[in-house]
Design brief:
With 203 residues, the protein is an alpha+beta fold. The protein has five helices and nine strands, in the order E-H-E-E-H-E-H-E-H-E-E-H-E-E.
Length: 203
């Protein structure tokens, strides 16, 4: 059965949908598109799905990876499937894959953080870099025109909640409502280019 890896985006009001609800949403859309998923074995079978590290509520995901298993797949399947998804959720690209699991491949993410009503600068970037460094998760950190770009590893412990807590404690924002945050990339970390590499290429 084909194992299909997709890259999808999660934007707008859909960012407030819980990460744990995504398998059901994707599966319902797949059925409406005429696709049949492979199911797990056991007493409580469910569609075989592997998502990347959870994305915090309210954070936009611009290139989120996920793996799905189907009974069959064709060149038009992705378009049909994406058309059935709700507004704010869209499949950007896909590839048939096998081998190493998604969880083992997902080792870094790039976040972009902006302030609402306040411009984030070098102080904010330095504080976020320090917190990530404490976890041994810092990969890179830059700031440009009020946007902090922070690449991190250890996605289980180093993510949006830590960033908000750090900036709030320093008085640089008023909490979640004072920031706009997006996860721009999730994938492998490449030391040579100092960037997060996508888990699939264009198809």
């Amino acid at each position: 059965m084909p194992r299909i890896r997709i890259i999808f985006e999660k934007r707008g009001l859909f960012t407030f949908v819980n990460h744990m609800d995504l398998p059901v949403i994707f599966s319902r859309a797949a059925r409406r598109a005429g696709l049949t998923q492979e199911f797990t074995q056991g007493f409580s079978p469910h569609p075989r799905i592997s998502l990347a590290s959870p994305l915090a509520i309210g954070v936009e995901g611009l290139a989120e990876p996920a793996d799905f298993w189907f009974e069959s797949w064709d060149s038009e399947a992705c378009r049909r499937w994406s058309d059935m998804l709700p507004e704010g959720l869209k499949i950007l690209k896909w590839a048939e894959t096998d081998g190493v699991s998604l969880a083992k491949l997902t080792e870094a993410a790039l976040y972009r953080i902006r302030g609402l009503g306040v411009t984030l600068g070098e102080e904010a970037a330095s504080l976020l870099a320090q917190e990530a460094e404490k976890l041994g998760a810092l990969r890179s950190c830059t700031v440009d025109e009020g946007v902090v770009s922070l690449a991190v590893g250890d996605l289980e412990h180093c993510g949006a909640a830590l960033f908000v807590k750090t900036l709030t404690a320093a008085g640089l924002c008023g909490g979640w409502s004072g920031l706009l945050m997006e996860r721009a990339a999730v994938g492998r970390w490449d030391e040579e280019s100092a960037s997060v590499l996508p888990l699939i290429q264009e198809v």
